[in-house]
Amino acid sequence: MVAVNVPITAVTKAGGAPAAEVTGDPTNGNVIKGITNDTVVIIKNAHATVAQTATLAAHVSVDGQVVPNRVITVPAVSTLKYSHLSPSLYGTDLTITPSTVDIKLSAERAQ
């Protein structure tokens, strides 16, 4: 099982198009490679009536205790944006597992 890649789109002073959306893969998950604190992760729920979730995998433990994954609930037909997702917590390759293909993912970073 290989997680589906979500590329990071550069946002520049000259402007540009929004990041392309990648359909969430609830079976294999998705990965955003090379995140930094400046990466903006965009999570969209395309379902018309039902809230959906996306789980961000934490990769650390503290004093032998595993830090729980972060579960984000996205309301129906809504888009949420997150930044400052620390690589020290999530790793430089952020793994996201959506609850359904109704979740669309994209990522941006200022250059």
Overall tally of structural domains: 1
Pick out the low-confidence regions: none
Query: Main β-sheet: number of strands, strand sense, barrel status?
Result: 5 strands, mixed
- Overall mean pLDDT stands at 96
The beta-strand count equals 12
Question: Oligomeric status of the shown chains?
Answer: single chain
Rounded Rg: 14 Å
Alpha carbon gap, first and last residue: 32 Å
- Strand content is over 45%
The CATH architecture classification is: Sandwich
- Helix content class: under 10%
Number of helices: 1
Helix/strand order, N-terminal first: EEEEEEEEEEHEE
Supply the CATH class: Mainly Beta
Find the CATH topology.
Jelly Rolls
Shape, principal axes of CA atoms: globular
Quick description:
This protein has about 110 residues and is mainly beta. Helices cover about 5% and strands about 45% of the residues.
List the topology elements.
Blueprint: E1 4-5, E2 8-11, E3 22-23, E4 30-33, E5 40-45, E6 52-56, E7 61-62, E8 65-66, E9 70-74, E10 78-82, H1 87-90, E11 93-98, E12 103-110
Parallel strand pairs: 1-4, 2-12
Antiparallel strand pairs: 3-12, 4-11, 5-10, 5-12, 6-9, 6-11, 7-8
